[in-house]
């Protein structure tokens, strides 16, 4: 069942306040958080993407949003509730990416594809309650289990289970190497 837009907005503001100690109040988040602006624009573009005849409008809105926020989210991506993009600049989320609920994404993150087929799943699937560090690159049709942490500048190119701690190039699961 879809969430009412006002409830979604309140959830997003609460998620930022919970995850970002620099967030002082709701007004600041609503007016000054470009990552939230990108998420909100994505939600509208995603609705348009799914409506007959509005794919071009959806793409134009996503490109306009990219120019304003520095965050590029393809309107075909599927993004869960209470997702926070902190700082955001340089973040890219591809068309077939799936992002779970309560995910925190820092700046410079790429959820990128590695195939060219139009009807193929080409981008990552991220579970719930995942933290993706600044500059991390997740490439291809891979799955990252819920409650995982992905380190700064990690390059992730294959699946990892829940509760993983991923670091390095290529990323390895630090929980398996303890």
UniProtKB/TrEMBL annotation:
<dbReference type="GO" id="GO:0009001">
    <property type="term" value="F:serine O-acetyltransferase activity"/>
</dbReference>
<comment type="similarity">
    <text>Belongs to the transferase hexapeptide repeat family.</text>
</comment>
<keyword id="KW-0808">Transferase</keyword>
<dbReference type="InterPro" id="IPR011004">
    <property type="entry name" value="Trimer_LpxA-like_sf"/>
</dbReference>
<dbReference type="InterPro" id="IPR042122">
    <property type="entry name" value="Ser_AcTrfase_N_sf"/>
</dbReference>
<keyword id="KW-0012">Acyltransferase</keyword>
<dbReference type="Pfam" id="PF00132">
    <property type="entry name" value="Hexapep"/>
</dbReference>
<dbReference type="InterPro" id="IPR045304">
    <property type="entry name" value="LbH_SAT"/>
</dbReference>
<feature type="domain" description="Serine acetyltransferase N-terminal">
    <location>
        <begin position="7"/>
        <end position="39"/>
    </location>
</feature>
<keyword id="KW-0028">Amino-acid biosynthesis</keyword>
<protein>
    <recommendedName>
        <fullName>Serine acetyltransferase</fullName>
        <ecNumber>2.3.1.30</ecNumber>
    </recommendedName>
</protein>
<dbReference type="InterPro" id="IPR053376">
    <property type="entry name" value="Serine_acetyltransferase"/>
</dbReference>
<dbReference type="InterPro" id="IPR005881">
    <property type="entry name" value="Ser_O-AcTrfase"/>
</dbReference>
<dbReference type="Pfam" id="PF06426">
    <property type="entry name" value="SATase_N"/>
</dbReference>
<dbReference type="GO" id="GO:0006535">
    <property type="term" value="P:cysteine biosynthetic process from serine"/>
</dbReference>
<keyword id="KW-0198">Cysteine biosynthesis</keyword>
<dbReference type="GO" id="GO:0005737">
    <property type="term" value="C:cytoplasm"/>
</dbReference>
<comment type="pathway">
    <text>Amino-acid biosynthesis; L-cysteine biosynthesis; L-cysteine from L-serine: step 1/2.</text>
</comment>
<dbReference type="InterPro" id="IPR001451">
    <property type="entry name" value="Hexapep"/>
</dbReference>
<dbReference type="InterPro" id="IPR010493">
    <property type="entry name" value="Ser_AcTrfase_N"/>
</dbReference>
């Amino acid at each position: 069942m879809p969430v009412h837009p006002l409830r979604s907005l309140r959830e997003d503001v609460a998620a930022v306040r919970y995850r970002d100690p620099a967030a002082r109040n709701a007004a600041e988040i609503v007016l000054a958080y470009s990552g939230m602006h990108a998420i909100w624009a994505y939600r509208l573009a995603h609705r348009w993407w799914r409506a007959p005849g509005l794919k071009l409008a959806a793409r134009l809105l996503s490109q306009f949003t990219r120019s304003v926020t520095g965050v590029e989210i393809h309107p075909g991506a599927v993004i869960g509730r209470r997702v926070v993009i902190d700082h955001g600049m340089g973040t890219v989320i591809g068309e077939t990416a799936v992002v779970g609920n309560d995910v925190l994404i820092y700046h410079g993150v790429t959820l990128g594809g590695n195939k060219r087929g139009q009807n193929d799943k080409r981008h990552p699937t991220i579970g719930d309650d995942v933290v993706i560090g600044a500059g991390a690159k997740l490439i291809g049709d891979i799955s990252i289990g819920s409650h995982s942490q992905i380190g700064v500048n990690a390059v992730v190119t294959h699946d990892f289970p829940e509760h993983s701690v991923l670091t390095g190039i290529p990323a390895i699961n630090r929980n398996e190497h303890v």
